[in-house]
Every structure is written in C-alpha cells, then in structure tokens.
Here is the input.
Amino acid sequence: MLNYQPDAHFEIKMWDMEYLKTPHRALLARIYQPQGEGPFPVVLDLHGGAWNNKNRLANAPMDEALAKSGVLVVAVDMSLAPEAPYPSCVQEASFAVRWLKTNASLWHGDPTTLGLLGSSSGGHVAQLLAMRPDYLPYHLHPLPDSQCANLHITYVATRSPISDPWARFRQAEKMKREHMIKNSHTFFNPWESIHEANPQEMLNRKDPVALPPMLIMQGQLDDNVIPIIQETFCASYRAAGGECQLEIFENASHEWVATPSVQTDLSHQVLKLFIQRQLHSARRV
Here is the structure.
C-alpha cells in the first residue's frame, strides 16, 4: 500500500531516456527513481524558461529532493518557442502524462497518483493541462500500443507559475524588459492565443474547466510574475470551486529555488506536505 512520508529518505537512481521524437529533435526525460519496492507516488515535472529556454534539468535540485523522500519524479524536455510556438509544448506535456501513466509501474510508481509540478512557464503549461484534461487540441501525439487516454491528474503544484500570461506581458512592458516581451511574442503565435491559453482568463470567462487541488509557491520580491497575479488567480480558482493553496516566500525572487537557502529548503517541505495531503485525500475518496 502507498504510504508517502515526506521525512523518509531513499537512495535514488537517475537516468535519461527519449520519450518523444518531434520534427525538431528528440525530447528526453530524466527519471529520478527511489530505490525500493514502492509503490511510489508519481510526479511529472515541466520545466520553466519563459517558453523559450531551459530543459528537463532546470528544476533538478527540487526533483532530487522530492525523489529522495520517496516520489518517482520524471522531468521532461519540451519544445522551445523558437522551434515551435504554442501549443507544441502543451501537446508534448499531454503526451508525457499519458506516457508516464503507462510506464510508471515499470519504475515502481503508482500511475493513479500522478501529479504535475511546473515552474514559471512550466507552471503555465501544468495549469493548462490540469484545467483542460479533455481539450482535444492538446492531444496531438498518439501513444502507440497504449490504452491510457486519461489525462486527469491528482493535483498540480507550481512555483512562480505564469497564471496570467497577459498580466505578465504587461509587467514586462512596465519593466521595459525587451527579452521577456520578445519571449511572449515568440511563444504566443498567433498573438491572440495569449488570451485563449490564459488560465486566469479561462476562469474569468467561466470556461468549463477541471479544478484539481493546486499549490502555488510565489516569491514575495518577484518582479517578473508579481504576487498580485497569483493572489488574483487563487481567488478566482477558489470562487470557481477549486482548492488553491498560495504560499508567499519572504525575500524571495522569481527563481529563488535555484540556489540553496532556508527558503529553498522550505519550498521543498511545503511541496512534500502538499503532496502528502493530496494523496491522503485521494485515498479517502
């Protein structure tokens, strides 16, 4: 029986493998497997990088910390906007969910527990998948020889997610950050998709959405995705009937988890406790 204890400690095995080949390149997955019989809860990590940069290794310290507590963590590459704009990375993440649900048991993971972990733009992708699990445009890539078509996830945990891409774009304009402005224009092509693929605006429009439990970890000093964006989103998510836990980390900027610190350690603990609570709630249901 699955009994996740956040304070447990496991040795882990790490390796890379190809999970999807696109017209642009092969996309790799980094598997972080706790060494034990399991079954272990499963997390799919979606990297940040403003949709234009980084890869599966971007969140490695958090992924390792989570795996060492007894979670099968799989972090995946996604196409970058210069290769392919929206919705390519969301379509690849959709495939990764189905692929991981199909293969998790090979690495002693319980596929029924799968949750999403996303940072910054990866948090945006995670929110889109969690809120639109049956949205056909996201399910481009078939999974051969698999019966797994269920995209529903147990929870979504995020760090500095771009919950409102339009508000974040306006913040980049305000700060005169030309590279961030360009990143949005490169990814949201056509430009109107910045509103179609906007979790906050989906709630504002009262689109039919799923509302799995969500964690948002936000830096107090973040001037990229500012705290009010998350506060507004959480209020809207709760008003729509969902559970949204917002944790503000004092004196923390956008990417505070990239370096060791007391606040980084605290973010790992908050994440583990959130996962434990969601697994416990799922068991009761």
The mean pLDDT is 95.
